[in-house]
Amino acid sequence: MDARDVFVTGGTGYLGKSLIAALLARGHRVCALVRKQSLSRLPDGVDVVVGDALDSASYADQVPRGCVFVHLIGVAHPSPAKAREFETVDLASVRASVHAATTASAAHFVYVSVAHPAPVMHAYIAARIAGEALIRESGLAATILRPWYVLGPGHRWAYALLPVYAVLERLPTMRDSALRLGLVRRAQMIAALVTAIEEAACGTRILDVPAIRRAGVT
Question: CB-based contacts of 74: which residues, under 8 Å, 6+ apart?
Answer without folding.
Answer: 10, 13, 89, 90, 93, 112
